[in-house]
Each structure stands twice: as structure tokens, then as C-alpha cells.
């Protein structure tokens, strides 16, 4: 694992709006190297900023429950299964609906949440900032190819996506900021027989 606090090539922001996530600056070395390569391909004046990397299973479960409870409060007429499925569109559970064990991407150290900043470190228009995404219950602004965002935000998302895909990352399409390499979702999307990384 590489801890972003020990390097100066890629920016990282303050801790996400999550309780006790002191490990958010850590990722697999392969992920760091790929992100660094992708950053070198960005147009002049743009850099990546890491929002979150590694997340332990206890915190993952807490976030999933918070999302589930919020959706239940907003949509009390939905069944447990419907709310669970809706919750998984935003947060990966640690136990699947059928009771089987899941391996959330962030717990592998192979998933990153990133956005773009300018040369002075100011966030560019990405459509919605990650701190505000928990309020976007329907995913209107969070989807990578959202039609509700400005033309400028669409362009920045395209720029970011093009360089990350070029180095092998895959995107989770309901979250423009979420990219991974080597986890189970990556294996599924790239038709690999197995993932490279399990939970840390």
C-alpha cells in the first residue's frame, strides 16, 4: 500500500464526510502508479485530487446502513429488497442480499474516488462535488453521463475518464468519481476470469 501523505505528485483532499476514515489516503501501489501515469496525460493546468482510497469493512457497513436508512425514510413504501438494491447503486454492501459475502471495491485498496483540480488546487466544475453526493438520492448528478450537468462539467468528466481508461481503470457508471483496477468489478467489466485483489 502507498499512503498519499508520503508523496507530493498527486493531491489529496481532507477526509471524506465519513466518521473515522483515517485510511482514506492509502491505495495499492499499482493503483497509485496508474493514477500518476494518468495524471501525466491530463491537459496542462489540470491535476487529480484523491477524495478516498482504502476503506475498512466496518466503515463500509456503516455507510451502507446510513444509505439504506435514508432511502427507507424517503421511500417507506418500498420493500426491503428494493431499498437494498437501490442502496447498492451507491454503496457496496459487505453482505449481499442472498447472505453471501461481498468484497467492496474500496476495501481492496484498488478503488479510488477522484476529481480534477486546477493548477492552484481549486476544484473544477465536475457537476456535483463529492461532499454533496449523499443528497443526490436519485443519482441525477452523480451518474458519469448525467444530462443534468453543465457542458463544462461534462467536458471535465470526459477528460478525466479518457486518461483513466487509457491506463486500465474502469468506472462505476452511477458515480463519475469512482474508478478501480484489479477488483471484482474491474474483472467483471473487462471479462477477466478472476480479480487481482481481495480485501486488505
Key terms for this structure?
alpha+beta; Muramoyl-pentapeptide Carboxypeptidase, domain 2; five-stranded mixed sheet; 7 strands; 30% helix
Short characterization:
This protein has about 200 residues and is an alpha+beta fold. The chain has 5 helices and 7 strands. Helices cover about 30% and strands about 15% of the residues.
User: What percentage of amino acids are in beta strands?
Assistant: 5-15%
- Count of helical regions: 5
Q: Helix and strand succession?
A: EEEHEHHEHEEH
CATH topology of the domain at 2-55 and 112-189: Muramoyl-pentapeptide Carboxypeptidase, domain 2
Which percent bin holds the helix content? 25-40%
CATH class placement of the domain at 2-55 and 112-189 = Alpha Beta
N- to C-terminal distance = 9 Å
Amino acid at each position: 500500500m502507498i499512503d498519499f501523505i508520503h508523496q507530493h505528485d498527486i493531491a489529496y483532499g481532507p477526509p471524506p464526510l465519513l466518521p473515522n476514515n483515517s485510511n482514506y489516503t492509502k491505495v495499492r501501489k499499482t493503483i497509485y502508479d496508474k493514477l500518476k501515469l494518468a495524471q501525466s496525460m491530463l491537459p496542462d493546468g489540470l491535476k487529480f485530487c484523491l477524495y478516498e482510497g482504502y476503506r475498512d469493512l466496518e466503515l463500509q457497513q456503516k455507510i451502507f446502513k446510513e444509505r439504506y436508512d435514508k432511502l427507507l425514510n424517503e421511500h417507506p413504501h418500498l420493500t426491503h429488497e428494493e431499498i437494498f438494491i437501490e442502496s447498492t447503486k451507491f454503496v457496496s454492501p459487505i453482505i449481499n442480499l442472498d447472505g453471501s459475502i461481498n468484497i467492496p471495491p474500496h476495501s481492496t485498496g484498488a478503488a479510488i474516488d477522484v476529481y480534477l483540480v486546477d493548477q492552484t488546487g481549486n476544484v473544477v466544475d465536475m457537476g456535483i462535488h463529492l461532499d454533496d453526493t449523499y443528497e443526490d438520492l436519485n443519482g441525477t448528478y452523480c451518474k458519469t453521463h448525467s444530462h443534468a450537468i453543465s457542458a463544462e462539467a461534462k467536458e471535465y468528466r470526459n477528460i478525466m475518464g479518457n486518461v483513466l481508461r487509457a491506463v486500465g481503470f474502469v468506472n462505476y457508471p452511477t458515480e463519475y468519481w469512482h474508478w478501480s483496477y484489479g477488483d471484482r468489478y474491474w474483472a467483471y467489466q473487462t471479462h477477466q476470469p478472476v480479480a487481482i485483489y481481495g480485501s486488505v
